[in-house]
Write a structure and sequence with these properties.
two-stranded antiparallel sheet; globular
Length: 304
Amino acid sequence: MAVGFWGSLQVMNRPPVIGPRLLRPLVMGIVNVTPDSFSDGGRHAGPDAGLAHGLTLLGDGADILDIGGESTRPGAAPVSVEEELARVIPVITALRARTAAPLSIDTMKPAVARAAVLAGATIWNDVNALRSPGAAQTAADLGCEVVLMHMLGEPMTMQQAPRYDDVVAQVETFLLDRARVAMNAGVDERRIWLDPGIGFGKTPQHNLALLAALPRFVSLGFPVLLGASRKRFIAALDPLGAEPDARLGGSLAAALAGAAAGVAAARVHDVRQTLQALTIDAAIRGEILPQARSAGSGEVAAPI
């Protein structure tokens, strides 16, 4: 597996691995510093709010924080490089001053990725899979870990009647092709993650097929990031989940499916609840020994 991926775990306070195997997927907490996110709608926009939310997610147990300054919700319009930089760099700088946890920059723009890595980010989460001009070479130059995600079209148009002959096979082919492009540009193959792109140019049926095929994506040999948190397909299956913050149950179900498949990380809004679900799941499988934490002491007591 990836030296870069496993190397990023060494700075964490809670070791989530034994040897080369994850006990549970890492939990990547979402820090949207945009005014138009589909889920939190600008609730954490601005440097102070973004910092506070990031610290809250770390306190809830997030292993990684993913900071984004441009909404990629269906129908979202692009923002300028200058605007995106103004949104994310102060937050990344402030977080890096407060934590050693891995920070990820969620951007399609090479210039933003470069500035973010200089400010302290160590992962580039690119929903465009390094297709922007100069992106692959920028990723190679930066030497950071890179998440390559599948998206059909662009955020503005991706949900306008998406069609596939075989969604699983086409997404797999796309991701492997983008990984080859990245490696040909000089990106270390051990630093590449794959993301099937749940909700990015897919119908609910497409999303379900991709979730069912997660073991196939994991078998490709790259760490897999799963981002299904609060996605619209949940509401399509459960009308009571019409609002994003009413989709926790479906989000947890997807995270547990990812854990069963062996994904490396789950990108989520609800960090504390997801971490609890993944921890109990691992304990049921006998991979984590339950322990009681002494209230207020920060020390771990004897196993229950």
